[in-house]
Amino acid sequence: MSSFSQSFSRRSLLRLGLGASAVAGSAALLSACGSGGSSQQSGSQGGSLNGSKSSANPNGYSDDGQNYSGLVEYTHYEGTLNYEQGTVEHPPRNAPKPKVTDALSANTVTGFHEAIAYFAAAMDYLVKTGSTDAFSTGIQLSSKTRSEVDALSASILAGVEKGSWYVNPSASYALSSAQPSIMSDGNLLFKGKYTLDFGAEAVAEGKIQPVVASASASASAEPTEPSEDALVSDAASPTASATASAAGPASRVTVQECDFRGRYHADSKMWELSVAYGATLQGGASTASAAASGAASASESVSASAEASTEASATSAAS
User: Fold this and answer.
1) What are phi and psi of 34, to 5 degrees?
2) Global pTM?
3) What is the pLDDT of residues 136-172, one digit of tens each?
4) Strand partners, 196
5) 248: exposed, middle or buried (C-beta count within 10 Å: 0-12, 13-18, 19+)?
6) Cα separation of 122 and 143, whole Å?
7) Are 240 and 219 in contact (CB under 8 A)?
């Protein structure tokens, strides 16, 4: 599966309709989508959740009777919820920040699901604010997932510094099964989908602009060596490249396959999550991939803008 920080054409970012100064902000949120490569099963099931310890289920995980399929929701937040959408004066602020609960420390299927729910809330907080504060406690992240989160934060904050942000972005996750499966190493796996909604408007060049997209992508993926922090030794991690071209409108809501792999650490009583992103199911080229370090220089942005305008004119004339 692919990571957040794949490269993406600035030309395609400009087609989102945000203007040259919003390139960095566009790249920031697009980078959370990965590259749209094919989703792959991360390790084989080692056994059922029957509660007995065995070579396939060394931790004795058991079905807790809950149906966790569908939208992942977290209900514990800090302080009063007084979220404000972004305006031309400021990006979104007072976003709901998840609060750590005792349930996060349980070495059970319930604890694993709670950790995923916390991650989902922390990710929504990140795309709204650029802050990784919510990831500093409650759960642990694999080294690769942590580096991707940090890169996304840096890119969003770089966009804000340049005066570009989305008015009301959101991130959410849904799980595909009622209960997780057990991987070959005894840890847990939930497969699901990641949804990123850019919202209807963005701020660029000191004014509110509609978020629009007109692009499509063709992507190819090939397997690479597994990352050293993979929870399953035989898990593949394909990289993907995407090229964008002018085409029909692409949705500003993107949906991707994703895997949550969980390992429990008895010493810290915390779950470690490794999150991998796969095939893009909805959204076109704007969902394919993006540079997490997408802060371009002013000259590059102006050049890209001019190039996009020229291409758009040529396409219009040809049609």
Assistant:
1) 75, -155
2) 0.74
3) 999 999 999 999 999 999 999 999 999 999 999 999 9
4) 171, 254
5) exposed
6) 17
7) yes
